[in-house]
Description:
This protein has about 375 residues and is of the alpha/beta class. About 40% of the residues lie in helices and about 10% in strands. The chain contains eleven helices and eight strands. The protein has helices at about 5-25, 35-40, 60-80, 125-130, 155-170, 175-190, 205-215, 235-255, 260-280, 335, 360-370; strands at about 100-110, 115-120, 140-145, 195-200, 225-230, 285-290, 325, 350. Strands 1-2-3-4-5-6-7-8 form an eight-stranded mixed β-sheet, with helices on both faces.
Amino acid sequence: MGEEEILKSNNSEEEEKIxxxxxxxxxxxxxxxxxxxxxxxxxxxxxxxxxxxxxxWKDGNYKRSVIACFxxxxxxxxxxxxxxxxxxxxxxxxxxxxxxxxxxxxxxDERDGSIYxxxxxxxxxxxxxxxxxxxxxGAPRAVxxxxxxxxxTPTIRRDIEDDLRFLAWESLKGSVRFNGALNALKSIAxxxxxxxxxxxxxxxxxxxxxxxxxxxxxxxxxxxAHLFNPPSFSLAMSFRTIxxxxxxVWKRVKSMLPLNSENQDSTVQAATSISAGMRQWxxxxxxxxxxxxxxxxxxxxxxxxxxxxxxxxxxCNGKFAAKLFVLSKGKQKFFEAHGLEQWWSDDLxxxxxxxxxxxxxxxLKSLYSGLPPQxxxxxxx
Length: 381
């Protein structure tokens, strides 16, 4: 072979190697749009020794971003399963390992075999390897993360089935996922205590997280909850609104009638029960005003909010409240406004709106109605 032919042969071999390496990277998910380094947060630091002095987890923006990443990991656990990804090229682990957490359990829907949730625990071994000698203050020992609807052929049927369940009845208790999530949350509460764990979800997953958290709260176990784009509309809610208007007229008439002492005592007792419960469980809701699925949480209940910028919220005037964080970016497309990625965005500007939301008041009122007045916090705390 001549010198030119030898050089051409060597160059073609090098080009083939480069193409093979690029294909391998593509197969390994290095350039996948859902890869952590592609679409993950840019300015969220990983735990280090400085967190032992000033914990990043005490910053609400940091906690919100990391927990949203955990929920994204659950979406990717199911996508990894559907696309037959292996340990070497799986996308999901990159969304929890930077924060020194590990996956200890997946929640699987027995109807279609899909993954809809996961339990992530603080990874002490990984933390020690980076000289993080202990869990930073504010970092949960375990997080139960629940995904929302995934519009893929293997999962769409069961996901939509639960979406319609909520739309019709405003309840998810009939779903197998509700029982699975409730049992999983109870198990980590038994293991770590309710003050060291949290539950989080996005969209349909936020609906499950809210109702599972409420179910545990009725047992006296109060768990931190982070709900991203929770569903806020249902047919049952619409019918209930009509009934409430009729009920309001009846209450006005009833208030004009004399109240006997027995009814008065029961009214005071119920008020005491509710006021005691309201101080215990205050979920965090993250809502985009342009998202028609969750925007009804911002509807006021008719009273002005005098505590809009206070972190420690207390219900006022007998109303129920939550930590409601509202994102307003003007008109947005639905998938952008409802997406999970916005909650770890660098330019995120949230308004803490702790007004008496009509929907929040209804949700939490149903939680505390009927509680015995002497009920105390569970021993799990």
